[in-house]
């Protein structure tokens, strides 16, 4: 579990506890970190990233950095940091020993859904292992348009090229829209009793925590449902709005969340948020 009250930080103690439990029945080899977070909408601080790298080194774990949402930055004053950069800047011996694989995908960034192209980069991986990748997966290719877009992302137009302005405007537009939607979520949910949302820094979703009254919890148990699944079903039936129950992603015992997309047009998102807060207020009254 992430530390929600600390902005969804990775809690080193919690990870070590899970490792101890796991080592009783298997041999953990990999630590996978999603940054920016999905569905939580957070970005790890540099200090937290350094803690994760040290933990991977001490526990002899391969670090997989899922960084596919790095173009989705909602806070202009808090730029995205890659694990590769932080690892390099930490210096030896960590920078030359911690094994890292980082991932990037067009479909979660500037390309939008549907452009299935991306890459992964291997750092400090043994050359004998690298040989396996040279012949693996070469029979699977992304669509031609995805390949073209990926090449454009990797080698963007130079300032003297005509398309440079268009590409930069596209990037800035995506970030501006995401920042606006993140502020909208914080503003509207922040005024709703019984709903609490941690600050949003990046990613494609928000993960607000919702209060559910005891009678709703009992009725959900009687139906054999997780309480947030019960809430989302009632929301869908009453409003037509589909949210992802927090239990789908995993959440600490006794807490309830919903996953909410930030990628809707602003006016549509505002309607969803107002409908959600109104329904939640009525839900609290009906089940109190």
Largest sheet entry? 4 strands, mixed
Give the strand order, joined by hyphens, for the main sheet: 1-2-3-4
| CATH class label of the largest domain | Alpha Beta
| Count of separate DSSP helical elements | 10
Radius of gyration: 21 Å
CATH superfamily of the largest domain: Type I PLP-dependent aspartate aminotransferase-like (Major domain)
Helix amount: 40-55%
Query: The CATH topology of the largest domain is what?
Result: Aspartate Aminotransferase, domain 2
Describe this structure in words.
- With 288 residues, this protein is of the alpha/beta class.
- The protein has 2 domains: 151 residues, Aspartate Aminotransferase, domain 2, CATH 3.40.640.10; 79 residues, Aspartate Aminotransferase, domain 1, CATH 3.90.1150.
- It has 10 helices and 9 strands.
- The strands form 3 sheets. It has a 4-stranded mixed sheet with strand order 1-2-3-4. It has a 3-stranded antiparallel sheet with strand order 6-9-8, with helices on one face. A two-stranded antiparallel sheet has the order 5-7.
- Strand 1, helix 2 and strand 2 form a beta-alpha-beta unit.
- Helix 7 packs parallel to helix 10 and helix 8 crosses helix 9.
- The two termini are 29 Å apart.
- The model has no long low-confidence stretch (mean pLDDT 92).
Features:
288 residues, alpha/beta, Aspartate Aminotransferase, domain 2, Aspartate Aminotransferase, domain 1, four-stranded mixed β-sheet, three-stranded antiparallel β-sheet
